[in-house]
Write a structure and sequence with these properties.
Helix content: 10-25%
Number of helices: 6
Number of strands: 23
Strand content: 15-25%
């Protein structure tokens, strides 16, 4: 391992000079051991170990790694050190562990593996994208790599090795699902355009609200989404031919709404197993998908600036006040899409007063003030 501590010792011809050199070297390595130094080089704010022509992202030290990384970290695909190029191919054990100030990590395509505990207790991390090139991630009950990431709610998977992992322990028939990689707190799994197959039981019995299925997925296993989903979003215009139902284990009730590309509703209504979903709604790419049509109608009536009958993310983000547009509407029930109205900093008095059928709402993260009686009369 290359050390980041270099000792400049002149060549000595006497035994006393040689002895001093040995003392300096021993003291240097002892200092590294005592401080728990784990890296060879630090480049661009990221710590690496080097081996051959490859680099592994690692931690600052093994005693207190909490300040090693914070904010947004972009891992490069290659680095250069002492006139040599290295491919960044791995995130090592505990590399980002306990970095609670870490909010975002960009992992490059070309990364091959993420090791045990790499993001342990990164409570500031809310989303992660796993690139296509990842072929190895250890798993354990409660999540190995991302254990303790209590606010990690959105996971995008572009790796077939993860999406189509064998989610069954054949030794003792214990069920293994995506929570063994990412934890139980994830609310939205996105299977990206590089994914072609989703293994059986992938999201079985998890606390997931939404799954998004990329347009190149051609196979979905039994009970892959047998959980209490509220939304399933598919990008594929032609329904996947399903051999088994991915939406239920046995005869339990399916409650999820299926969102399909505009012009494909009839095809999904005629497709086996897809037609078991209670509601199929067409959507336009790039527009917000509203679970509640009454909520959508109010939003379109007030903030559809381009007149296309939809609300896109830019239109939602431009709204600075919802005033009392929803007050007294007893027909609305779910407004989790409010989270995309990122221009809001406060919710005014009585904003949802009397909405007695409103059961679910998600506020934008930047809200700093909530008025009086905002939810009075709501369930």
């Amino acid at each position: 391992m290359i050390t980041n501590n270099q000792f400049c010792v002149k060549k000595a011809s006497t035994s006393s000079h040689a002895g001093m050199r040995r003392i300096f070297l021993v003291c240097g390595f002892l200092l590294m051991s005592l401080t728990g130094m784990a890296y060879d080089v630090k480049i661009g704010g990221i710590y690496y170990n080097l081996s051959g022509s490859e680099a592994t992202v690692t931690y600052l030290n093994n005693q207190d790694n909490s300040t090693a990384y914070s904010g947004s970290v972009v891992i490069p695909s290659t680095i250069s050190y002492q006139n040599a190029a290295y491919r960044v191919t791995a995130i090592g054990e505990n590399a980002f562990s306990d970095c609670t100030g870490l909010t975002q990590v960009s992992i490059p395509d070309g990364m091959k593996s993420i090791s045990s505990g790499a993001f342990y207790n990164c409570t500031g991390l809310t989303s992660i994208t796993i690139p296509e090139s990842i072929t190895h991630m250890p798993y354990a009950k409660g999540g190995d790599v991302f254990q303790g990431c209590s606010n990690l709610v959105t996971v995008t998977i572009n790796s077939n090795a993860i999406a189509d992992a064998p989610f069954t322990n054949l030794l003792n028939s214990t069920l293994v699902n995506l929570s063994y990689f990412f934890g139980y707190q994830v609310k939205h799994y996105i299977f990206g355009e590089s994914v072609t197959s989703i293994h059986q039981c992938a999201c079985y019995a998890l606390n997931v609200n939404t799954v998004t299925i990329g347009s190149n997925v051609t196979s979905i296993g039994w009970a892959a989404f047998a959980t209490h989903l509220s939304s399933i979003i598919v990008k594929r215009e032609t329904p996947i031919e399903l051999e088994f139902s991915p939406f239920k284990e046995r005869s339990e009730k399916i409650t999820a709404t299926l969102y399909v590309p505009k012009g494909t509703k009839a095809a999904y209504e005629a497709a086996k197993y897809w037609n078991e979903l209670p509601e199929i709604v067409e959507y336009v790419e790039g527009k917000i998908l509203f679970a509640d049509n009454d909520i959508k109608a109010i939003c379109v009536a007030n903030w559809d600036t381009d007149g296309d009958g939809e609300i896109d993310y830019e239109e939602a983000g431009a709204v600075t006040s919802i005033e009392n547009k929803f007050k007294g509407h007893t027909d609305i029930s779910k407004f989790n899409e409010l989270q995309y109205f990122t221009g809001l900093e406060s919710v005014c008095d009585s904003a949802f007063y009397g909405c007695n059928n409103l059961t679910s709402i998600t506020l934008p993260s930047n809200i700093t003030a909530i008025g009086n009686s905002v939810f009075q009369g709501c369930i």
